[in-house]
Task: inverse folding
């Protein structure tokens, strides 16, 4: 028997690997926050290459940190909308890891690569995918009675030009319709006369 949380989802529906992915996202947000703090110190001590670029970079980093924290919170709550952004964050972290490794920053590159791999494993595990899947609505049964032989169709349901002689067509289906596709269903050129 799983406990119900405030959003009504059973805690049993949140597999451990999904929780591990949420922890990885939170760690990545904290690491980016630490890097942002280093950037702020560099700007304050005038060690930044250009102060205006440093300020813009810090603002962008704060926005990204807030987004990653929001995604981590949503993954922890098994919100379906978080699946794609969480995977994209891990892919981007993997790209950053490759860049760091190519720059011979093995300490940070290996750590970032391990975090990205752990996050992807947690998000792409079958139980996690099932927990993050959007619920499929149940099909509704239409209460329609079978058509009885010999019953007449509703007026206006016949195709244009196929009405029986002496029976008026519905104005929306007539040849004078404002829609060229209805006037000319065969796709023949329509000549307009004034």
Result:
């Amino acid at each position: 028997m799983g406990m119900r949380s405030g959003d009504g989802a059973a805690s049993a529906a949140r597999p451990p690997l999904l929780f591990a992915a949420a922890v990885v996202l939170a760690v990545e947000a904290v690491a980016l926050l630490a890097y942002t703090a280093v950037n702020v110190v560099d700007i304050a001590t005038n060690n930044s290459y250009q102060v205006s670029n440093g300020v813009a970079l810090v603002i962008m980093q704060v926005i990204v940190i807030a987004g990653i924290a929001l995604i981590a919170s949503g993954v922890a709550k098994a919100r379906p909308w978080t699946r794609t952004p969480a995977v994209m964050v891990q892919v981007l972290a993997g790209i950053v890891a490759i860049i760091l490794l190519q720059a011979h920053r093995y300490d940070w590159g290996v750590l970032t690569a391990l975090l990205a791999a752990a996050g992807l494993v947690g998000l792409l595990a079958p139980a996690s995918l099932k927990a993050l899947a959007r619920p499929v609505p149940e099909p509704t049964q239409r209460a329609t009675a079978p058509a009885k032989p010999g019953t007449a169709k509703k007026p206006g349901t016949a195709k244009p030009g196929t009405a029986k002689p002496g029976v008026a067509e519905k104005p929306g289906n007539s040849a004078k319709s404002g829609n060229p596709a209805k006037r000319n269903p065969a796709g023949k050129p329509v000549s307009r006369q004034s």
